[in-house]
């Protein structure tokens, strides 16, 4: 954000700078690469087209290309000349033990590897190479058109691609899934073609860190036509840049994240705009218009979590990611005053108000930030860790900030900013991972009974306990109304969380019972304001009831989720 709030906000001070960090390593120059295409098995007819395409990419992007099938080039002295080595549809056993040792040392000490297509059909008796390439080839069906789902849209090799990319190629099945050791960038939709054997998780492009070096691989590139295809050529260029260290990339394995915005309108519908302006949705990307406002996720608050998202500014623009704030109730300045903004603005003169900063509180490590940052017009990835009052920020996989806040941010909402007209920013692929569930949800899957259901709707009581943020229980438009759960046996209850839809209760009670007839109130409020009510209680019973006595709107009571936890 640009700082233009009222004078009271100027009382914010820089409370801390990032903890000392090791010296930054600047983006590596990309001056020369080696393209290796030796085959000891099947030989792909597209190899000459691939070499020609890489030469053209080099000429257009300022790096020289040496193409060879001579394994004798794999000596320590010769490999040291190159920023990356491309295995272009190599097959079989192509290096002897001394050459393998030289290549291992090259990569482990900072060299780059880019594998294309049959690079996965290479060196089956070399365990280190299996780790490098990520997975060995298993089989393939006939060439056909399939849909590639782009999973990481911040990586230089995939950021330019549509979220779902339909193209013709030879589609490899792999012996193992590389996800546990590599960052998967794109997967195949096996329902879009025949002959896939890996199921719902079929990686086709990925990258990983190997020692001090980096490996990138794509299963695409079987056909001659691939190398004349602009989208694939740009992917290939990005892969070479990532492998060589010329472009920042987060190649750490990623698992366990839940998408909050996955590029679909259905997921965007769960978000809410506070303040002016908003966002438009195109090809899985939301782009700002007007402001200064905030798009926030009202379904639930988060604590002890890692938040990841991709962002892009086309020029000297502005935006930010907000964490740890209470329900803004339509006011985008409440998150400024009560939470924290993780800033996106590479040109602000104040180091505490620039990309990677905790806005007005903690500057990033400037050298690390500058080395990790992709320029305007290119996508970047943030990971923001919030654990209690501690905030950690990674930019494209590099930790650039570590700050302990004195604000109450441990449990709160998250959002993304649209700063104002002409201060353009885009976001995509917003996902979160918590350190673990807050306990076993005793209500999950319990089919509740309700006093009523919204007339003409399918907003049944069971929707409040199905764990799906896209469903809800809605009542008739009258007071009182209740939702009752049978937990199966008497349970100690220490926490109840209610996630309200826009129609919420101003006054309600939480009650327990052993019989379902006589009720004990363990919580009551007459000042409910919607959003998420996360309530510590002390009670016990087989039955639990939420009794609404006063609606806050003309509509009924509307609960997205009802969660019940024991000790």
Automatic annotation (TrEMBL):
Keyword hit for Signal: yes
Keyword Signal: yes
Gene3D superfamilies membership: 3.40.50.880, Exo-inulinase, domain 1, Galactose-binding domain-like
Keywords noted in UniProt: Signal
Pfam families found in the cross-reference section: 3keto-disac_hyd (PF06439), F5_F8_type_C_2 (PF22633), ThuA (PF06283)
InterPro entries given in the database record: AL/BT2_dom, Class_I_gatase-like, FA58C, Galactose-bd-like_sf, ThuA-like
Extent of the signal sequence: 1-26
Domain spans labelled F5/8 type C: 435-567
Protein's UniProt name: ThuA domain-containing protein
């Amino acid at each position: 954000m640009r700082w233009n709030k009222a004078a009271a906000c100027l009382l914010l001070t820089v409370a801390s700078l990032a903890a000392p960090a090791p010296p930054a390593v600047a983006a590596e120059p990309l001056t020369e690469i080696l393209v290796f295409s030796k085959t000891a098995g099947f030989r792909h007819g597209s190899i000459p087209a691939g070499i020609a395409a890489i030469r053209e990419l080099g000429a257009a992007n300022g790096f020289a290309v040496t193409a060879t099938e001579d394994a004798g080039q794999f000596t320590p002295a010769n490999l040291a000349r190159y920023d990356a080595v491309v295995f272009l549809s190599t097959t079989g056993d192509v290096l002897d033990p001394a050459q393998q040792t030289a290549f291992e040392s090259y990569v482990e000490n900072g060299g780059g590897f880019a594998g294309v297509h049959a690079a996965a059909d290479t060196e089956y008796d070399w365990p280190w190479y299996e780790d490098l390439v990520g997975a060995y080839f298993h089989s393939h069906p006939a060439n056909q058109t399939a849909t590639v789902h782009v999973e990481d849209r911040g990586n230089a090799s995939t950021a330019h691609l549509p979220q779902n990319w339909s193209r013709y190629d030879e589609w490899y099945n792999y012996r193992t899934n590389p996800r546990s050791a590599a960052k998967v960038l794109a997967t195949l939709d096996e329902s879009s073609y025949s002959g896939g054997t890996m199921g719902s998780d079929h990686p086709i492009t990925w990258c990983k860190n190997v020692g001090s070096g980096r490996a990138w691989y794509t299963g695409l590139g079987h056909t001659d036509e691939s190398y004349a295809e602009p989208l694939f050529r740009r992917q290939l260029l990005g892969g070479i840049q990532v492998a060589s260290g010329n472009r920042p990339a987060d190649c750490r394995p990623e698992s366990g994240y839940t998408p909050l915005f996955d590029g679909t309108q259905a997921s965007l519908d769960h978000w809410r705009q506070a303040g002016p302006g908003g966002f438009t949705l195109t090809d899985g990307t939301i782009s700002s218009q007007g402001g200064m406002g905030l798009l926030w996720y009202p379904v639930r608050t988060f604590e002890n979590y890692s938040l990841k998202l991709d962002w892009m500014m086309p020029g000297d623009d502005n935006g930010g990611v907000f964490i740890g704030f209470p329900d803004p109730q339509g006011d985008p300045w409440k998150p400024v005053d009560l939470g924290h903004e993780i800033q996106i603005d590479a040109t602000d003169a104040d180091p505490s108000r620039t990309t990677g900063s905790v806005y007005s509180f903690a500057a990033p490590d400037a050298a690390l930030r500058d080395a990790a940052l992709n320029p305007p017009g290119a996508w970047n990835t943030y990971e923001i860790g919030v654990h209690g009052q501690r905030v950690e920020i990674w930019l494209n996989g590099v930790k650039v900030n570590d700050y302990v806040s004195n604000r109450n941010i441990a449990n709160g909402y998250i959002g993304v900013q649209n700063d104002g007209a002409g201060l353009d920013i885009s976001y995509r692929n917003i996902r979160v991972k918590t350190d673990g569930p807050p306990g076993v949800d005793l209500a999950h899957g319990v089919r509740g009974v309700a006093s009523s259901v919204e007339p003409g709707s399918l907003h049944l009581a069971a929707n409040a306990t199905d764990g799906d943020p896209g469903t809800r229980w809605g009542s008739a438009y009258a007071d009182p109304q209740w939702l009752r759960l049978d937990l199966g046996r008497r349970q100690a209850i220490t926490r109840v969380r209610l996630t309200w839809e826009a129609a919420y209760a101003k006054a309600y009670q939480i009650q327990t019972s052993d019989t379902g007839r006589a009720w004990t109130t363990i919580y009551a409020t007459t000042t409910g304001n919607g959003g998420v009510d996360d309530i510590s209680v002390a009670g016990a019973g087989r039955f639990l009831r939420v009794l609404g006595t006063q609606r806050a709107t003309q509509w009924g009571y509307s609960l997205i989720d009802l969660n019940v936890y024991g000790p």
